[in-house]
Amino acid sequence: MSKMVTNSQSINQLIENHLKPIVKKVDEEALYAKDYLYALAHEGYFVRGNKTEEELLLDEANIIYETAKVCLTTAFCAWCHLAALTYLRKTDNAFLHETLLPKLEAGEVLGATGLSNPMKYYSGLEDLHLKAEAVEGGYVINGVLPAVSNMQPEHFFGAIAKLPDREVMVILQGNTDGIELKEKVGFAGVNGSATYSIRFANVFVPTARVISENAKEFCDLIRPTFIYYQIPIGFGVMTASAEGIQKIKNKQNGCNEYLSQDADSITVQVEAYQTRLNQLTSNLMLKDVVALRLDTVYATLNATQANMLHNGSPGYVEGSVPYRKLREAYFFANLTPTVRHLEKLSVNLK
Question: What is the pLDDT of residues 66-78, one digit of tens each?
Answer without folding.
Answer: 999 999 999 999 9
